[in-house]
Amino acid sequence: MSLNNLDTTVPMRTQDELHTLVQAIYDSPGGQETNWLEWKCGHDLSTNEGRFAVSKAILGFANRAVDQAQQVCEGLAYMVVGVEPGAAPGVSPFDHATLSQRVKTYVDGPRWTPNYVPFEGVTVLVIVIEAPRAGHRIHTLQKEFSNGKSANKAGTVFHRSTAHTEPAGPKEIAMLEDRLLAGTLSPDLDLRLSAHPDPLLRLDLNPDSLQDWLVRHEVYVRANNGAPADQPPPRPKREPQSPIERIAGLYDFSPDVSSTWMRGLYADPKDRDEYERRFSSYFAKLRHGALTNAVVRAIVRGNGNKIAFNVGNDTNDSVTGIQLSVTVPSLDLVVFTTVSGPDPLPPLPRWPDHFKDMLRPSPSPSFSPHDLHGPTTGSLIDMGDAYEITWDIGNLRPGEWAAPVEVTVIPSVDTPSEVEVKMVARAMDRRRSTNATAMISVVDDKMTIEDFYEANPDRPE
Fold it and tell me: Does residue 70 fall inside a structural domain?
């Protein structure tokens, strides 16, 4: 066993694992110290020089870059005293409290654990230094040390490079400043975004088709308007034909169409004028948007032409205040999250019925759950070249997926066969954002007005 084939993908903490490390050092050729491992022989931990050497190594390992340290043993580092390649003189052990107090003279801040490992009849000291983390402060020498050869003032910052522990330079200081500041920042946002589109059908609103529908519908409405029969021509008044008829006053029993008891049997000219006004108003509304708006509402409130979006948190941490934004380019299509107003077309024009009109209550507004804005409705903005829809998703626990949100997309006959949709998720407690794209297919099948409203249904609507 040597350091060349030592498994460093996992941290070494147990006595057996630390013994394996000591054995690997002993069996290795010299000159293999690294940025996670240092060994020393001949250090007397009862002297200031011995304690300073250990303290300097601890400081150097604790001041490493986080990403660099994580490459080996999950960031742990090891200072081993009493063994070197081919030799194991060992050390005189101190109890942990005494050793910690002596080292603390020079080091205060980094977390480290001393371990005494029996090896080849001697005792070897293995100090495990915990991995550096974002937000850890810069660790400095707590007390000046001088041995006549070199002087190390209090406040010196030591940094472990490839195989040596030396005072930190400007680049190392900048790295340690970034490491400290990183602790005040939230981690990057890590969410999963997905889109689940229906095949989008095109809506054909050809002006000629629209006019043809209106012409056929006008014929239907005229034929089903509930109008009474036209008045018959007045009959000439018959004079009494005998003295008995004169005495009895029996002059003429032909119907008087103006009499009250005959009203309703025949069309009244005034009622005809009122009906024509209602007829004109009805078709004016259809031509000026009521028909197409009714078709759009039917599509939005139906089950087709939907794109559903999902946001999931597959991490082990909760995410707070998630907001999802979706951008759909305006490529001859229209996007809806909700519609308001009643579903059907305006009521068909009917011949006036004075008695029913007086007793019929005023129509109440028709509402639908789709009219109510909520967290799944989203806020839609038409930006000219694209639609942007934003939903407040809320908070997600680890492993949780939010309820899907959706939009309705109505392409025209000129919309391309594929449309790219962009998704962006942000959160209050995370940096940056999560981005994803999806390609939405637009098929050649077309919807027409007749798919939603028949021009001449079997019976009146």
Answer: yes
Q: Which residue is it, tokens 């139906």?
A: 302
CA distance 193 to 324: 9
By the 8 A CB rule, do 415 and 400 touch? Answer: no
- For residue 456, being part of any structural domain is answered with no
Residues of the domain holding 386: 192-228+267-451
**pLDDT at 358 (0 to 100):** 52
The residue that leads in pLDDT, 150 or 386, is: 386
The upper half-sphere exposure of residue 118, i.e. CA atoms within 13 Å in the direction of its Cβ, equals 1
177 lies in the same domain as 199: no
Both tokens of residue 369? Answer: 């759950």
- Beta-bridged to residue 324, according to DSSP, are 391, 425
Which residue is it, tokens 């977390």? Answer: 111
Among 8, 14, 3, 106, CA closest to 52: 106
**Does residue 48 lie in a domain region?**
yes
Domain tally for the chain?
2
Residue 162 half-sphere exposure toward CB, CA atoms < 13 A: 2
In angstroms, the CA 248 to CA 200 distance is: 82
Shared-domain flag, residues 142 and 122: yes
CATH number for the domain including 155? 3.30.950.30
* Burial grade of 316 (CB within 10 A; 0-12, 13-18, 19 or more): exposed
| Cα–Cα distance measured from residue 343 to residue 294, given in angstroms and rounded to the nearest whole number | 6
401 vs 254 pLDDT, higher one: 401
Could you give the CA distance from residue 57 to residue 163 in angstroms, rounded to a whole number? Answer: 11
3-state helix, strand, coil in the chain (%, to 5): 30, 25, 45
Residue 8, class by beta-carbon neighbours within 10 Å (0-12 exposed, 13-18 middle, 19+ buried)?
middle
Output DSSP code: residue 402.
Answer: P
* 58 and 199 housed in the same domain: no
Which tokens is 6 given?
């030592």
Q: How far apart are CA 27 and CA 23, in angstroms?
A: 6
Q: How does residue 275 score in pLDDT terms, banded at 50, 70 and 90?
A: confident
- Residue 250 resides in a domain: no
What pLDDT, in 10s, does the model give residues 19-58? 999 999 999 887 677 899 999 887 788 888 999 999 999 9
Is residue 7 domain-shared with residue 129, that is, in the same domain?
A: yes
Residue 425 sits in a domain whose CATH number is 2.60.40.10
